[in-house]
Write a structure and sequence with these properties.
The protein is an alpha+beta fold and 350 residues long. The chain has 10 helices and 12 strands. β3, α4 and β4 form a beta-alpha-beta unit. α4 packs parallel to α5. The longest helix has 19 residues. The radius of gyration is 20 Å and the shape is globular.
Length: 350
């Protein structure tokens, strides 16, 4: 395993912003993306944070991403909207879409906003958590930025890790945050394992004959497995249709492999739903009820071999607290790659 060095959240965010600004992104936008990308690392979503920056830079330099997009609402109703991201950075597209959804939900109680012509937007949890911070429930789905899974029983790569994230606010406890791929592991975990020279557990991937694949550097020889067998395949299919097909975004054979092709427009699709708790209950009462859920589940009698019951988002919260105090651990291999990139861009390294 590679050694690590801890970097403060602020320093990481500033570094990302410097790199993107050097590539022609407006300063304000670069700062917004830096904040969102470093927040991914702060939350422990290492496969979706600064690890992705070299890939983004490569795409920007190949003219595969628009640095000055003009977001347009091309379908607009009281509780719904469809946004064209103009091939902009996915983080900016989805931050805008989430803001639109939250504003509509304040008026209508619930709002669904789809996006097309976007790009990879980092971890799914980022966007519903924005809604949860404003006494709303957020739900997010996306079409993954590459296909790494066949339909159940097939071998053609027609589906991705197509994730879902749901965030529910609480009062005295952390928010409940479900953030999951429809595959056993997100592909970002495969890539970070390869960078760290680690093996994958059995059950993440199989080769085209169905044999376990544990070497992440040979991931191109196989595919990811869905959670729960055919049930996970079904979820990936439905999430992809709701976030992709419904929005006129890429799906199935039309998905561009973000990892292998830096210049072709991806037309990535997402959706965000914001539900204003006030449409159903007093927010303080609801959040107190979520606290009660926490207490019930944490006090559950344990099965032998377990030392606690954990709720979705609990680990994320504890990692965020620890990394806020101690810094974000970056492997020396990743840090070296980032600093080589910084030198190429002519910006101050980490």
């Amino acid at each position: 395993m590679s050694a690590t060095t801890n970097i403060s959240h602020h320093d990481l965010s500033a570094f990302i912003s410097r790199c993107l600004t050097a590539c022609g992104m407006p300063v304000f936008d670069a700062e917004q993306v830096g904040t969102l990308m470093s927040r991914a690392d702060l939350m422990g979503q290492d496969g979706h944070g600064v690890f992705r920056l070299p890939m983004y830079i490569k795409r920007i330099r190949a003219s595969g991403m628009n640095m000055t997009p003009n977001f347009k609402i091309i379908e607009d109703r009281a509780a719904t909207a469809l946004i064209d991201g103009d091939n902009g950075m996915g983080h900016l597209v989805m931050q805008h879409a989430t803001e639109v959804a939250m504003e509509k939900a304040r008026q209508t109680g619930v709002a669904w906003v789809g996006a097309r012509h976007s790009n990879h937007a980092g971890p799914a949890a980022l966007y519903p958590m924005m809604a949860a911070q404003d006494d709303m429930i957020g739900i997010y789905m996306a079409v993954a930025s590459a296909n790494h899974m066949p339909p159940w029983g097939g071998i053609d790569m027609l589906l991705g890790t197509n994730p879902i994230a749901v965030a529910l606010p609480s009062k005295d406890f952390p928010p409940i945050v479900l953030d999951m791929a429809s595959t056993v592991a997100a592909y970002g975990k495969v890539k970070t394992a390869a960078l760290r020279n680690e093996q994958m557990p059995e059950g993440w991937m199989v080769d085209r004959n169905g044999a376990p694949l544990t070497d992440p550097k040979k991931s191109s020889e196989g595919f990811l497995l869905p959670i729960g067998g055919p049930k996970g395949y079904g979820l990936s299919l439905i999430f992809g249709i709701l976030a992709g097909v419904l929005n006129g975004a890429a799906f199935g054979r039309d998905v561009v492999d973000f990892n292998a092709d830096a210049s072709t427009t991806t037309n990535t699709g997402h959706m965000i739903l914001a539900l204003d708790i006030k449409a159903f209950a007093d927010p303080d009462v609801f959040k107190s009820d979520i606290d009660a859920v926490w207490r019930q589940f944490k006090s559950s009698e344990l099965m032998p071999g377990f030392d606690e019951v954990r709720l979705p988002g609990e680990r994320m919260h504890s990692v965020t607290q620890k990394r806020s105090e101690d810094g974000i651990p970056l492997s020396d291999a990743l840090r070296e790659n980032l600093n080589v990139m910084a030198a190429d861009l002519g910006v101050r390294p980490l």
